[in-house]
Each structure stands twice: as structure tokens, then as C-alpha cells.
Amino acid sequence: MTAHPVALVTGASRGIGRAIALELARCGYAVVVNFAHNAAAADEVVELILNANGSALAVPADVADSADRARLVAESLSAFGRIDVLVNNAGITSAGRRDLLEATEESWDAVFGVNLKGPFFLSQTVAREMVRLIREGTIPQGKIINVSSISAAAGSTDRADYCIAKSAIRMMTELFAARLADEQIRVYEVRPGVIETDMTAPVKAKYDSLIASGTWPLRRWGQGDDVAKAVAALVGDFFPFSTGDCLNVDGGFHIRRL
Ligand SMILES: NC(=O)c1ccc[n+]([C@@H]2O[C@H](COP(=O)([O-])OP(=O)(O)OC[C@H]3O[C@@H](n4cnc5c(N)ncnc54)[C@H](OP(=O)(O)O)[C@@H]3O)[C@@H](O)[C@H]2O)c1
Question: In sequence order, what are the beta bridge partners of 189?
Fold first, then answer.
């Protein structure tokens, strides 16, 4: 078992999850780098962490799949003996960005599987392990961070499934926060705005023009590091009397203006 605290980050091979994995490694966490398909990208994240004298392990697992989730947690525990932090970051966007009246069940099932069912049941499995580890004195406390989106509150009629699943992450965060408070586990939502990753690459021109027109006060693309720093702050124990909160990382997009 490692003496270092351990963070399990889903979807850590690319984009926001990669930045979170690297930041938590810099903070002294051993990191489980989960990914779905892109082993080369996950291996690169692991190599960067190992080269900086950290500890990391890449584990392929589809978070929408029950057996994969169980194996992900089992392999994390068998490698490191503990999980102190879970970051539910893995996510996919709406297939084809279809208008509400053309939306498909296939996209609904895929988006809800990865973006909501996966985080819910992975939180359940990891929380059970954290409760055990805390009771036996292996870890002092646990943290669960759910990466949602501004789409939890700002509707896009061409991505209904994505918006609805992300808005449910708010209630999920509050439920787990309420249930786990007595177990010394705190739960937070981090709500990114528009972040420059592979997910947003296909709609870059649209967001370039929204940025130029000042749709959010801090006129720039968000970066994975912006989200990673917010996650590091939340797991860094600067908010000991807060749980269930949502931290916006959106350049001020959530501010309503006239
Ligand atoms: N980019 C944005 O502007 C933005 C804004 C708000 C919220 N978000 C949210 O932030 C999170 C990360 O987004 P991103 O922009 O970094 O996405 P991304 O660049 O497309 O990367 C997605 C990551 O999730 C992994 N992944 C996808 N499906 C998975 C599955 N079924 N099981 C496990 N891992 C899976 C991918 O693994 P592989 O490499 O193996 O494919 C990859 O590591 C998502 O929840 C997204 O909804 C993003």
C-alpha cells in the first residue's frame, strides 16, 4: 500500500481529466488514470507523472459498464491499497448534436450511461470502499468531485440529453454530500465553461465568436488547467465546512446581465 493519498480520475487520458491527473500528481497524489479507448494517451499521462517521480497507473474501463467499474475500483485498490479522491470527469457529448425534435434514444442512452449512470454508480462503489478505509483508519477522509458543465444550467436545444444529464449531476452531488457527510466524505461539483479540448474542437469557430462578443466576462478559452486548479483546491482541504457545493470554472458565464 502507498503512503501517498490516491486519486482515481475518470477520463484522464485527454483534455480536462488529463490536466486534473497531472495537477493532482503535482499535489502528491498517486493517480489512477482511467480511459476508455486511447491507451497511448493514457500511457503518456502516466509517463509524465512517473518522470516527475510520482506514482500512476493507467486502467482502461468504460464507466458506463458495471463490470468495468467494479474492475476499475478493484485494480486501483490492488495497485495502491486506498482511494482518497474520486474525480468523475469522463464524459461524452451528444451524438450529432441533433435538434430536440430529432434527438435519438441511442444518443440519450450513450450520454446518460457515461455522463450520469457511470458517475452515480462509480461514486456508490468508491464511497463504500472509502467508508471501509476510513473506519479501519487507512485514510482520514474522502472526497468526490463531479465534473458537470455550464450545460447543467444553460440549455442547448441541439444537445438535450447532455444538458439534462449534466443538470442531474447537481442533485446527485447534493444527495451524495448529504448521505456521506457523517462518513467523513465530502462531495463537490465543478462546473466548467467552454474549455479547449478535443470535445470542443469541432465547434471552435462558434466559441471563438462567442468569446469575441463577450458572452463570458473573462474573454478567453478555458483550459484544462483552469479546471484542474479548482479540483486541486477542493481536494486540498481549504473548504472544511462546505459540502455539496458547486464551483463554477466558466470565466463568469453564469453571471446574468442586462
Ligand atoms: N470541453 C468543455 O468545454 C467542457 C465543458 C464543460 C464540461 N465538460 C466536461 O468535462 C469532462 C471532460 O471533457 P473533455 O472536454 O476533457 O473531453 P474529451 O477531451 O473528449 O476527453 C474525454 C475523456 O473521457 C474519456 N472517456 C470517454 N468516454 C468514456 C467512458 N465511457 N469511460 C471512461 N472514460 C471515457 C476519454 O477517454 P479516451 O481518450 O480513451 O477516449 C477521454 O479521456 C466531461 O465530463 C465533459 O462533459 C467539458
Answer: 146, 246
Question: How many Cα atoms are found within 13 Å in the side-chain-facing hemisphere of 155?
Answer: 5
Structural domain harbouring 79: 6-249
Active site residue 162: yes
Local confidence pLDDT in tens for the 258 residues of the chain: 778 999 999 999 999 999 999 999 999 999 999 999 999 999 999 999 999 999 999 999 999 999 999 999 999 999 999 999 999 999 999 999 999 999 999 999 999 999 999 999 999 999 999 999 999 999 999 999 999 999 999 999 999 999 999 999 999 999 999 999 999 999 999 999 999 999 999 999 999 999 999 999 999 999 999 999 999 999 998 999 999 999 999 999 999 999
What is the tally of structural domains in the chain?
A: 1
Tell me the HSE value of 75 on the side-chain side, using a 13 A CA sphere: 17
CB distance 66 to ligand 1 below 6 Å: no
Inside any domain, residue 257: no
Report which protein residue has its CA nearest ligand 1's atom 47.
Answer: 91
